[in-house]
Amino acid sequence: PAPKSSSCQASWQCSCSGPKKPVPSKSTSASGARAKTGKPIPQDIIDNTPLPPIESRKCPVEGCDSTGHLGGKYDKHFSVESCPVFHNFTKDECKEKRAQEIGERERNMEEALKRQWFISAASHQDPNASNEQRNYCNKVRDAREKLSEIRPGEDEMADRDRQPSLRGMTPEWDLQLFLEAQASASEKIEDDLRGLPDTKGIRYIEMGRYEMQAWYQSQYPDEYNRQPKIYICEFCLKYMRAKTILVRHAAKCVWKYPPGDEIYRKDKLSVWEVDGKKYKTYCQNLCLLAMLFLDHKTLYYDVEPFLFYIMTIADGDGCHVIGYFSKEKNSFLNYNVSCIMTLPPYQRQGYGRLLIDFSYLLTKTEGKIGSPEKPLSDLGLISYRSYWKDLLLSYLVTYNDKCVSIKDMSAEMAVNSYDIVSTFQAMGMMKYWKGKHILLRKGVSVYEGDLLEEFMERQKRRRADYKEIDPKCLNWRPYIAPPPAEDAPERPNKSAMAANKKNSK
Fold first, then answer.
1. What pLDDT band is residue 158 in, cutting at 50, 70 and 90?
2. Which range among 42-56, 84-98, 439-453 shows the weakest confidence by mean pLDDT?
3. In the CATH scheme, what architecture does the domain 256-473 have?
4. How far apart, in whole angstroms, are the C-alpha atoms of residue 177 and residue 219?
5. Pick the residue with more confidence: 322 or 16?
6. Which residues form a coiled coil (predicted)?
7. Looking at the chain, which residues constitute the CATH 3.40.630.30 domain(s)?
8. Among 10, 68, 131, 147, which residue has the least CB neighbours within 10 Å?
9. What's the CA gap between 422 and 27, in Å, rounded?
10. At what angle do helices 378-397 and 451-460 cross, to 10 degrees?
11. What is the helix (H) or strand (E) element at residue 326, kind and residue range?
């Protein structure tokens, strides 16, 4: 049992006090992230690779048998975007339309050049334009003034579960351009989804250079949760449904680093403080992303009472998110971490320990004693126990006295006394003997040696690129809540006014 007092005296003892069953180790799961290389595939490999099998998944549209394709290229489909029934077409009409487009494509090369000139020209009255180009401009102008006609029986096909018909509301020219673009986009969407698991819920996300496998489900909108894969901008964290949308977004996204204030920088590593009240959308997107890798993460909408600390690594493209932790602006129980997460591509590289160490650095700067919010997840408990273990052993290595005060250790390291005692007990170092608590240099198992000597040996074997937080690189002031707004003048109480009038009479 843990001691009742916040401080206890410990005497050093080298002998083992009895056998104890070893605690089974918990291995962390694989990150599930793989980097996407830009190397081209040789042509001979492409030619000799067999075509992938036809997808066995079914179209989710009610009344559709998954035959046909909006683009007319395939005989089957499995998505709403490629469903002819959803777009108020039949599979034969889609095939005929594709055959007609292929036949006209070669014959209309000159028309394409005219169309390109038409787009780039400032006006069809350009004096350098030829008569043929003027006639083409007039043809396009007349076609855009004529509305499309409603097909026979199209009103009967109208359904709330189908795409609304645009005939009779838009010009025929614009409608055909829209339908061609829609059919072309449907082929790209299915090509991106082909080969992914046929299950409900998000299974993969693509973010920057990495494709990551989701561990849990998040509270994204329904149209995103129905897809096996979504795409996320690595800078603004906006989520998208298709690769094409991500490419267009990346071309115009002006963000290269998280919003807020950069409070720490050493070499390429930075930490940013983001206020959930000022940047609500960004913080909500960050919480939705974290829910894919945390089973206990439930808060994503109410982010205003929290501060978010995002760790990034910089290169020529910008600052890439490694992980983050959040904490309440005003915590009654002095919690210094509410939620902490490291993205799978950066796990098992020491970044989780850096986030934990940085949270305690902020706690020391505030002059407080902090602790993570309980209960911790399995991976979170493993990470914190490892951090606390090294922190306590490094303290005892340089400690020369025979008596130790848990209260003094807590004040110096800004770690809660309960966390210190529970870590000593988990290591098997703390025992109750003859009315006092003692710390053992050796573990209680016969297989464990001197814990302090083993710790010093591990320190000597550390790599040269071992990552540590440098307090000198911190440029931060503790958060101060803004003063409350002045209260509005109180309205006069009618009952009190009536009583005063009665007394005056």
1. low
2. 42-56
3. 3-Layer(aba) Sandwich (3.40)
4. 35
5. 322
6. none
7. 256-473
8. 131
9. 21
10. 100
11. strand 319-328
Does the structure show a pLDDT above 50 at 6?
Answer: no
- Cα distance between residue 237 and residue 75, in whole Å: 36
Note the pLDDT tens digit of each residue in 294-310. 987 667 789 999 999 99
Residues in the chain: 505
| C-alpha separations of 390 from 69, 93, 151 in Å | 60, 69, 75
C-alpha span between 504 and 281 (Å, rounded): 59
Nearest to 88 by CA among 163, 151, 156, 161: 163
Helix axes 243-252, 172-193, angle to 10 degrees: 110
- Provide DSSP, 199-257: -SS--EEEETTEEEE-SS-----HHHHTSSEEEE-TTT--EESSHHHHHHHHHH----S
**pLDDT above 90 as % of the chain:** 38
pLDDT in tens, 190-214: 887 777 777 778 999 999 999 999 9
**Tokens coding 484:** 């409350």
DSSP readout, 117-152? HHHH-S-TT-TT--HHHHHHHHHHHHHHHSBPPPPT
Give the DSSP H or E segment for 75.
none
Mean pLDDT of 89-105: 81
Encoded tokens for 414: 């800004």
Q: Which of 279, 240, 282, 233 is nearest to 256 (CA)?
A: 233
Cβ–Cβ under 8 Å, residues 170 and 150 = no
Distance CA 309, CA 338 (A): 11
Q: Going by C-beta distance under 8 Å and a sequence separation of 6 or more, which residues neighbour residue 236?
A: 253, 255, 282, 285
Is residue 149 flagged as an active site residue?
no
Question: Which position among 101, 373, 448, 454 bears the catalytic label?
Answer: 373
Distance CA 145, CA 148 (A): 10
Task: List, for residues 386-425, the tens digit of each pLDDT value.
Answer: 999 999 999 998 888 888 889 999 999 999 999 999 999 8
The neighbour count for residue 321, using CB atoms within 10 Å, is 23
Host H or E run for residue 269: strand 269-275
Return the closest-CA partner of residue 415 out of 441, 389, 439: 389
From residue 81, give the alpha-carbon distance in Å to each of 69, 156, 345. Answer: 9, 22, 32
Q: For the chain, how far is it from start to end, CA to CA, in angstroms? A: 73
pLDDT digits (tens, 9 = 90+) for 17-43: 333 334 343 333 344 555 554 455 555
Q: What is the pLDDT of residue 37?
A: 46
Dist CA 145 CA 321 (whole Å): 50
- In the three-class reduction of DSSP (H, G, I as helix; E, B as strand; rest coil), residue 232 is classed as strand
Q: Enumerate the β-bridge partners of residue 264.
A: 271, 474
Coil vs helix vs strand at 307? strand
